[in-house]
Amino acid sequence: MNSLFIDFRDPLFSIIMFFSIVFVIAFISYWWNRYKHNEDSKYLDKFLRDFNAHPSKEDLRVLISGGELSEKSWLLLAQSYIENGNYEKSIEIYNEMLKLPSRENTTETMFLLGKTYFKAGFLERSKKIFLEILKKKPRTPEALKYLLLVYEYMKDFKSAKDVLEPLGELGIDIRLESAYINAMGLLNRLDISQDVKAHALLKMYEEQQQLFYLTYEYLFRINPSFAWNNFDASRSEQLADLLWGLEAKELDLDIISQNGFLREMYSARGDISLASSSDIFEFDVLIGLAGKANATLSFEYICTNCKQLYPFVFTRCSSCHGLDTSRLEWSLIKNSSKDFSEDNNSFQ
Ligand SMILES: [Zn+2]
């Protein structure tokens, strides 16, 4: 019976004790490491959460009023929020900065706040800010320009005209802005017919020679024959997208046959066969294909001022706010509408 128990002086007992102690230490060490790893992960998660989270309005109020960072640093932070599309945070920063008793750049901060309100689409608030700046400093061209934009976006063209006057007094060329505001004011009137608008718009264009695309886009949309009769065909290239999109019944073949560009363009489209080639690559390819391939033209619009590319035509660039800076670019693409109509026909 005694042989079942090991004496504590027995070397085997020492070995068993040794391995038991090693096992206990390894077991405790494993669980301790696991516990520490979990704790570290939780801490790291919390740290990353805090790092990625935007400061709350209250955090910003405390931080900005604490004065630990310079106003310039806050302005830079607000700008980085704008660049990331977070207008709300930048507006909170500007508003808190304007509450500081020892604020240094009040007008600049107000201007940036007005601009951000405008970008974020808060037009009424933006208007109030710019009017407040101009009350204190009436000769601030940048504030006047933004106020003009705000009124234009609000379709308050009468107030926009009032802004043009002080801008002109500051020596800024307002002819194009003035023509645009007058044209938009006319087109947005509800008390006159489209025909009256078309005649008035053409008269404005003939007097000022401004806003060619805007004028003829309206005329061709409302009354193509009136547009053709008053059209300067030498400028056809500037209107190529619009002319390319006209329906066959809207074409004036007498005018088209007398202009080289129009002859080549409508030969490329397949309406007529008055050109056998063209210096314009895309037209030349389409004339050569003679409708045998499924190809058409696609148009894009680039702002000559800021180089922003748009898939649609614009008169006022929404990026740099330049007027009449759109330049037409075209390329050959597969004609998916032809595919669609052919698919439809196949079911008939
Ligand atoms: Zn632009």
Please explain how this structure is put together.
It is built from 17 helices and 3 strands. It is flat, with a radius of gyration of 35 Å. It has a domain at 173-231. The chain is mainly α and 348 residues long. A hairpin with a 5-residue loop joins β1 (295-303) and β2 (309-310). α2 (57-66) crosses α4 (87-98), α8 runs antiparallel to α9 (175-187) and α10 (194-208) runs antiparallel to α11 (212-222). The protein has helices spanning 11-52, 57-66, 71-83, 87-98, 106-120, 123-136, 141-153, 157-169, 175-187, 194-208, 212-222, 224-229, 240-244, 253-257, 260-269, 281-289, 336-346, and strands spanning 295-303, 309-310, 326-334. The protein binds zinc ion.
Helix and strand arrangement:
Blueprint: H1 11-52, H2 57-66, H3 71-83, H4 87-98, H5 106-120, H6 123-136, H7 141-153, H8 157-169, H9 175-187, H10 194-208, H11 212-222, H12 224-229, H13 240-244, H14 253-257, H15 260-269, H16 281-289, E1 295-303, E2 309-310, E3 326-334, H17 336-346
Antiparallel strand pairs: 1-2, 1-3
Helix pairs in contact: 2-4, 3-4, 4-5, 5-6, 6-7, 7-8, 8-9, 9-10, 10-11, 15-16
The structure holds zinc ion.
Zinc ion binds at residues 303, 305-306, 308, 317, 319-320, 322, 325.
Percent range of helical residues: 55-70%
Percent strand equals 5-15%
Cofactors, ions, other ligands? zinc ion
Biggest sheet overview: 3 strands, antiparallel
Inertia-based shape:
flat
Tell me the span between the first and last alpha carbons.
Answer: 103 Å
